[in-house]
Write a structure and sequence with these properties.
The chain has 631 residues and is α/β, with parallel strands linked by helices. The chain folds into five domains: 2-88, Beta-grasp domain (Ubiquitin-like (UB roll), Roll); 120-194, Ubiquitin-like (UB roll), CATH 3.10.20.880; 202-340, Domain of unknown function (DUF4445) (Nucleotidyltransferase, domain 5, 2-Layer Sandwich); 350-396 and 506-630, Nucleotidyltransferase, domain 5 (2-Layer Sandwich), CATH 3.30.420; 406-496, no CATH class. A hairpin with a 2-residue loop joins strand 11 (175-183) and strand 12 (186-194). The protein binds FE2/S2 (inorganic) cluster.
Length: 631
């Protein structure tokens, strides 16, 4: 038996099975709720109002309207009306789809001018006609021509191809077009037709992120992008970060299947949008390339990720074989091969290997630092001769989670903060220039730097005692600083930064910088030896570089050594769809990169402790910051 759940003010009604949580039901209608704790009921972010009807709340039993409930714990038992406040929403869809960041992406050696050798292509061949003197079978004749065209190819003939071969060859007077689907070590002969009759061929590039998923539909004949789209990963209803997803997958009955289903559903929703926009058929999409972190890749493929978080932290697979779309339920041609970019280790995955190729690290002579900061911080140092990499848990604060009024970088998020000396006056700028609803990662870094500069916090990231400003007060969870009063916010309540928030931020920034230091120490180099710093992903989109250096996240280097690359994972996936050279390079990077496991030994923890100051215990590492903040 089903009930009807109506969400307001959206006025959206969905049919519900009684065991489905309000978070899941809202996601079905493309309303994404915040869910930092993955349904454990501890973060309170998913609080909604039950306006009418009854729900059953896990651990509490039936509750009746009107009452506030945690959407992650509540399932409808009657028809219900649920009001979703802004504070419980993930915000409008704004996903970093565009490949270009700020600055100098096009200086990266791998540009869009790579030679076209797509994962699915059509080649035209002229077979020799059989005679009484040459009575070889059709297949042998075709193979001989294929070998001339593509030496070294390992063709795999399917039964369907064999059935079509004799007619197609004779109909075209031995001139044929053969569709080739490259699938790792072999090439499937996916179709044969008369030469000159070409059918549309598209590929799908996927950046499978923990928080967001971005896709591009690419014409494989000319490399042009036909459509792009991005949205939240529907798995977000089951936890904000990769660890809570692993726990859900391994500890909840049916959890792994559920997460796999949600990842595929997210991709399918984007495909639906793009095929409509581009006027392309689902069956015209003949190849898929996915770049994702190891946990997302395991979950997308339905492979148990349990051992990624258990010592000694090993993935089931780093280098994936392609699988056919029909097996996964991805809504493209059912026989299209889905390729996943290879990972390196448990927390360094295909999004990074693909991104490194786009960033040109395997080809540069310059010592380059590549940084991708999200919930995890992934960092790689090196050049054409060597690459070392590591990953640290930065916590979700840079993505606006795990912070009292944190939010993602969407409209209403404070992205810039200015504070007068002593903290009396505060001004801010929001994304979309609308009243503030919260603060995003880049706003948090800005706030940390400006609070320090104004002398409101000390070098350890704690509020200074004795400041005479009403903005510094004691809240329910200890001391807090009011960034925006309720009368100014688009949320009705004060937007604050608490001492616990500061602590989370300090730990996040220390983890990233410590990771960079561990890599430098491992190769016996100093930060000053780094010739280029490439920042990938959404983190760099609004980042104030000077502030990121001032708080000690990034090395104190001249600004012109920094570049912001945008979504390198998506660009890597797109180029891999189109270029054999790029695919080979991604494999090569995954194979040759030396991974430093930060959980072994003490060097990371030692560096982490040193970095728990603004900007660092060793001020000599931050010469341009010396003297800021009053000591
Ligand atoms: Fe619902 Fe945390 S309380 S997701």
């Amino acid at each position: 038996m089903t009930c009807r759940v109506t969400f307001i003010p959206d006025n959206l009604t969905v049919e519900a099975d009684k065991h489905e949580s309000l978070v899941t039901l809202a996601a079905r209608g493309d309303i994404f709720l915040r869910g930092a704790c993955g349904g454990a009921g501890t973060c309170g972010r998913c609080r909604v109002l039950l306006v009418s009807g009854s729900v059953v709340v896990r651990g509490e039993g039936d509750v009746h309207s009107p009452v506030e409930v945690l959407a992650c714990r509540a399932c409808p038992v009657t028809d219900v009306v649920i009001e979703i406040p802004d504070s419980a929403r993930l915000g409008s869809h704004r996903v970093l789809i565009e490949e270009h960041g700020r600055g100098k992406l096009d200086e990266a050696p791998v540009s869009s001018k790579v030679a076209l050798a797509p994962l699915y292509e059509s080649v035209e061949l002229t077979m020799t006609a059989p005679t009484l003197d040459d009575a070889r079978d059709d297949w042998s004749r075709l193979q001989a021509e294929l070998r001339k065209k593509a030496p070294g190819m390992n063709p795999l003939m399917t039964l369907g191809f064999a059935r079509d071969l004799p007619q197609a060859a004779r109909k075209g007077n031995w001139r044929v077009a053969v569709d080739l689907a490259h699938a790792g070590p072999f090439t499937e002969l996916a179709g044969i037709s008369t030469a000159g009759v070409s059918s549309p061929r598209f590929g799908l590039a996927v950046d499978l992120g923990t928080t967001t998923v971005a896709c591009q539909l690419v014409n494989l004949s000319d490399g042009k992008t036909a459509a792009s789209s991005g949205t939240y990963n529907r798995q977000a209803a089951f936890g904000d970060d990769v660890i809570s997803r692993i726990i859900y997958a391994t500890e909840e009955p049916g959890g792994l299947a559920r997460l796999r289903h949600e990842a595929v559903a997210t991709v399918n929703s984007l495909i639906e949008e793009m095929v409509k926009e581009a006027g392309v058929g689902y069956g015209d999409i003949r190849a898929v390339y996915v770049a994702g972190n190891p946990i997302m890749t395991h979950l997308f493929l339905g492979v148990d990720p349990a051992y990624l978080r258990l010592e000694p932290y090993v993935p089931a697979v780093n280098s994936w074989s392609p699988v056919q779309a029909g097996e996964l339920g991805v809504r493209v041609h059912p026989r299209a091969w889905i390729h996943c970019a290879p990972g390196v280790a448990s927390y360094l995955g295909g999004d990074i290997t693909a991104g490194l190729v786009v960033a040109g690290l395997p080809e540069t002579d310059e010592l380059t630092l590549f940084v991708d900061i999200g919930t995890n911080g992934e960092m790689v140092l090196g050049n054409r001769d060597w690459l070392v990499g590591c990953a640290c848990s930065a916590g979700p604060s840079f993505e606006g989670s795990g912070i009292t009024n944190g939010m993602r970088a969407v409209d209403g998020a404070i992205e810039m903060v200015g504070i007068s000396s002593g903290g009396y006056e505060v001004f801010w700028r929001t994304i979309g220039a609308v009243p503030p609803r919260g603060i995003c990662g880049t706003g948090l870094i800005d706030a940390l730097a400006t609070l320090r500069e104004a002398g409101v916090i000390d070098r350890g990231g704690r509020f200074v005692a004795g400041l005479d400003t009403p903005r510094l007060r004691t809240g329910l969870e200890g001391r807090e600083f009011v960034l925006a009063w309720g009368s100014e916010s688009g949320y009705g309540r004060d937007i604050v930064l608490s001492e616990a928030d500061l602590n989370n931020l300090m730990r996040a920034k220390a983890a990233v910088f410590a990771g960079i230091r561990v890599m430098l120490n491992a190769v016996g180099l100093d930060a000053s030896d780094i010739q280029r710093v490439l920042i990938a992903g959404g983190f760099g989109r609004y980042l104030n570089l000077a502030q990121a250096v001032a708080v000690g996240i990034l090395p104190d280097l001249p600004v012109d050594r920094y570049s912001f690359l945008g979504n390198t994972s998506l660009k890597g996936a797109r180029l891999a769809l189109l270029s054999r050279e790029v695919r080979d390079k991604v494999e090569e990077v995954a194979y040759s990169l030396t991974y430093l496991d930060l959980s072994t030994g003490t060097s990371f923890m030692d560096e982490f402790m040193l970095a728990l100051f603004i900007p660092h215990t060793d001020m000599g590492l931050f010469p341009s910051v010396v003297g800021q903040g009053g000591d």
